[in-house]
C-alpha cells in the first residue's frame, strides 16, 4: 500500500495546510500493531477480499483470536471513527471462551474506502452487504454479533436481513435506535458537545475537524476528548498517546465510511431510518442483549421499547453503572462478563425466549463466567500479526 504523498499547491500555503494529513496506511498499521501487542492472546490479522461490493475491489481488514475453539464465534463491529484496536480491553477475555473476529468496517480503519451512496437506505444496505460478503468469504455459518454505537445499528440491520446467521445479537450503547425527539427535548437532554457537533456537521462529515487540524489532529483529540484516551490506560499503561494516535490515523484517511454515516444520520445523534420503526422485521428467534452506559448520551429508552414489542422473545436490557457511551472500555470487566454470559446462555439454551429471562440470574450464578485468562494464555508469546504482501493492501 503506497503512502499518501504530501503535495502542496504552489499557489497557496492554505491548500498545503489542509491537504497535509500527517497520515499513511503504514502509520496506521504500526500504531494498531503497537496497541494489539499489549494483548496476552495470540492474534492474526489479514485482508479478506470481498470483491466489488461498493468499490471495484473491496477488502476488509480482519483480526482473529482463538480460531481453534469449537464454540460459536463472536464477531465485533466497531462504532464511528474507531477500528479493531479499540476492542483491546475486551479481546483477551472474549477469546478465553470462544473464537473472536473483529473487523474494520468497510470505509473505516485499514479496510478499503470506496465511495458510498449519499442516500441513507442505500448506504446502509452497502455496509450490510459488505459484512455479509465478508461472512461468506470467511465461511461462518452463524455467530454471535456484537456491535457498538453505529456498529450496533448495523448489527441490528444485518440481523434483519440475515436472521439465520445471527445466534445472539448484542448491542452496546447502540446509535440510531430511537426516533429523533422534539427540539425542546433534545436540547434539554443532550450534552453541550453533542449539540455543538450536531450543529456543525449538518453540511459536513462528523470528524472533519480532525482533518482540518492537519498536523495538530492528534493534539485536538487529546485535548477535546481526554476521557477516551484515559479509558485504555489499564492496558497501555503510560503510553496513552498511542490511543489518540490510533484514533487520529483512523480518521485522517479519506472519510469514506464517515460519509456513509453522514448519509444515514439525522442530526448526528439519530438515524434517518431508526431501528425502532422496523424492529418488527427482526426474527422473534434472535435473542437480544442490550448493554447501555448509565452516563451515556445515547437514549436507552429504545431498549425497553424493543423489550415490550418483542414480549415473547429474549430481550435482556442491562444498564452498566458508571459507564458512558464507550461502555466496552469504561467498565470493560463488567461489559465482558455480560457478553460472555450472553454467549454462554445461547450455547446452553436454544432457542432462547422471554421465559428464559426469569432464570437468567440463576444461570449466571451457576455458570460463574470467568473473564480472567488461564495461565497457559498468559504464558503465550507476544501476538504476531500475520505478514502481509503489501500489494494486497487496501486502496485508501
From TrEMBL:
Cellular component GO terms held in the UniProt record: lipid droplet; mitochondrion
Chain coiled-coil ranges: none
Disordered, as annotated region: 371-396
EC number: 2.3.1.51
Domain of life of the organism encoding this protein: Eukaryota
GO MF annotation list: 1-acylglycerol-3-phosphate O-acyltransferase activity; carboxylic ester hydrolase activity
Catalysed reaction equations from the record: 1-octadecanoyl-sn-glycero-3-phosphate + (9Z)-octadecenoyl-CoA = 1-octadecanoyl-2-(9Z-octadecenoyl)-sn-glycero-3-phosphate + CoA; 1-(9Z-octadecenoyl)-sn-glycero-3-phosphate + hexadecanoyl-CoA = 1-(9Z)-octadecenoyl-2-hexadecanoyl-sn-glycero-3-phosphate + CoA; 1-(9Z-octadecenoyl)-sn-glycero-3-phosphate + (9Z)-octadecenoyl-CoA = 1,2-di-(9Z-octadecenoyl)-sn-glycero-3-phosphate + CoA; a 1-acyl-sn-glycero-3-phosphate + an acyl-CoA = a 1,2-diacyl-sn-glycero-3-phosphate + CoA
The family this protein is said to belong to: Belongs to the peptidase S33 family. ABHD4/ABHD5 subfamily.
Function: Coenzyme A-dependent lysophosphatidic acid acyltransferase that catalyzes the transfer of an acyl group on a lysophosphatidic acid. Functions preferentially with 1-oleoyl-lysophosphatidic acid followed by 1-palmitoyl-lysophosphatidic acid, 1-stearoyl-lysophosphatidic acid and 1-arachidonoyl-lysophosphatidic acid as lipid acceptor. Functions preferentially with arachidonoyl-CoA followed by oleoyl-CoA as acyl group donors. Functions in phosphatidic acid biosynthesis. May regulate the cellular storage of triacylglycerol through activation of the phospholipase PNPLA2.
PANTHER family listed in its UniProt record: PUMMELIG, ISOFORM A, RE40534P-RELATED
Designated name of the protein: 1-acylglycerol-3-phosphate O-acyltransferase ABHD5
Amino acid at each position: 500500500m503506497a503512502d499518501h504523498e504530501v503535495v502542496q499547491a504552489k499557489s497557496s500555503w492554505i491548500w498545503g495546510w489542509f491537504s497535509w494529513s500527517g497520515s499513511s496506511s503504514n502509520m496506521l498499521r504500526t500504531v494498531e500493531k503497537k496497541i494489539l501487542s499489549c494483548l496476552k492472546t495470540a492474534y492474526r490479522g489479514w485482508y479478506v477480499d470481498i470483491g466489488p461490493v461498493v468499490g471495484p475491489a473491496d477488502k476488509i481488514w480482519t483480526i482473529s483470536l482463538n480460531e481453534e475453539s469449537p464454540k460459536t464465534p463472536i464477531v465485533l463491529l466497531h462504532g464511528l471513527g474507531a477500528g479493531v484496536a479499540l476492542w483491546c480491553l475486551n479481546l483477551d477475555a472474549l477469546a478465553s471462551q470462544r473464537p473472536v473476529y473483529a473487523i474494520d468496517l468497510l470505509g473505516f480503519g485499514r479496510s478499503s474506502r470506496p465511495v458510498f451512496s449519499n442516500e441513507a437506505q442505500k448506504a446502509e444496505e452497502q455496509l450490510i452487504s459488505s459484512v455479509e460478503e465478508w461472512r461468506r468469504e470467511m465461511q461462518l455459518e452463524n455467530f454471535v454479533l456484537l456491535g457498538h454505537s453505529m456498529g450496533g445499528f448495523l448489527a441490528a440491520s444485518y440481523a434483519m436481513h440475515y436472521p439465520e446467521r445471527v445466534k445472539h445479537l448484542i448491542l452496546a450503547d447502540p446509535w440510531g435506535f430511537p426516533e429523533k425527539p422534539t427540539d425542546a427535548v433534545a436540547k434539554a437532554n443532550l450534552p453541550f458537545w453533542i449539540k455543538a457537533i450536531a450543529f456543525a456537521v449538518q453540511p459536513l462529515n462528523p470528524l472533519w475537524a480532525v482533518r482540518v487540524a492537519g498536523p495538530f489532529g492528534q493534539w485536538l483529540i487529546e485535548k477535546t476528548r481526554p476521557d477516551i484516551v484515559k479509558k485504555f490506560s489499564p492496558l497501555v499503561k503510560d503510553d496513552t498517546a498511542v490511543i489518540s494516535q490510533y484514533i487520529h490515523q483512523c480518521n485522517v484517511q479519506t472519510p469514506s465510511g464517515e460519509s456513509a454515516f453522514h448519509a444515514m444520520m439525522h442530526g448526528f445523534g439519530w438515524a434517518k431510518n431508526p431501528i425502532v420503526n422496523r424492529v418488527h422485521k427482526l426474527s422473534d428467534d434472535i435473542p437480544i442483549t442490550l448493554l447501555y452506559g448509565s452516563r451515556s448520551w445515547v437514549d436507552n429508552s429504545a431498549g425497553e421499547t424493543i423489550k415490550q414489542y418483542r414480549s415473547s422473545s429474549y430481550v435482556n436490557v442491562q444498564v452498566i453503572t458508571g459507564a458512558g457511551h464507550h461502555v466496552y472500555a469504561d467498565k470493560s470487566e463488567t461489559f465482558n462478563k455480560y457478553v460472555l454470559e450472553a454467549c454462554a446462555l445461547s450455547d446452553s439454551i436454544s432457542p432462547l425466549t422471554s421465559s428464559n429471562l426469569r432464570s437468567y440470574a440463576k444461570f449466571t450464578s451457576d455458570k460463574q463466567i470467568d473473564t480472567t485468562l488461564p495461565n497457559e494464555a498468559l504464558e503465550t508469546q507476544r501476538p504476531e500479526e500475520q505478514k502481509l504482501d503489501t500489494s494486497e493492501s487496501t486502496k485508501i
